[in-house]
Amino acid sequence: MVLPIYAYGHGVLKKKGENISPDYPDLPQLIENMWETMENANGVGLAAPQVGLSIRMFVIDTFDMMEENHREEGMRKVFINAQKLEEGGEVSAYEEGCLSIPEIRGDVERPAQLRLRYLDEQFVEHEEVFTGINARVIQHEYDHIDGVLFVEHLKPLKKRLIKRKLDNIKKGDFKSTYKMKFISIKK
Question: Which of the four, 13, 49, 62, 87, has the lowest number of CB atoms within 10 Å?
Fold first, then answer.
């Protein structure tokens, strides 16, 4: 089932998510719904706060972001109760966007490497090092479970330039190509 994606301005997007246990209600269905919601919106990642749940879970699928001859480097994974252990490597900028903040993009600087401990959908613990696009997408979604949005990483000038657009999204004065939940709907 496609869930509504919570738009910029909703309090759940600014809340730090809580860890969950294997008995979290309807977890397999929630994971399936998150995949369907992300794919319906043509996203590469989706965090639980974006569907209104203040829990530490996100899904990513980076296969389509990879260059043709590096497609096998992509991944499709569920991350539960993730803990960032270390970031490192060269910091670089890359244009990011967000399903909760449609049609706004901006360069975000992030380190090239990330070491993460997380649980998969069977609650098996993993500790892995991620690099490149995979690291970037994970860092973006990890920010969501910590209540941080990519626009907070933008340079001050860019923040000023997008302020009106953000205010419009917050007011619901925006048409989306996918199902969204706004704070208020413009009359």
Answer: 87
Tokens of 23: 């008995």
**What sign results for the dihedral spanned by CA atoms 25, 120, 144, 31?**
negative
Residue 87 in contact with residue 134, Cβ under 8 Å? no
Rg value, the chain, Cα: 16
Per-residue pLDDT reduced to its tens digit, 75-128: 999 999 999 999 999 999 999 999 999 999 999 999 999 999 999 999 999 999
Alpha carbon distance 94, 110 (integer Å): 8
Structure tokens at 53: 């749940």
Sequence spans of domains, the chain: 5-181
Any idea which fold 5-181 has?
Answer: Peptide Deformylase (3.90.45)
Q: Which residues are catalytic?
A: 141
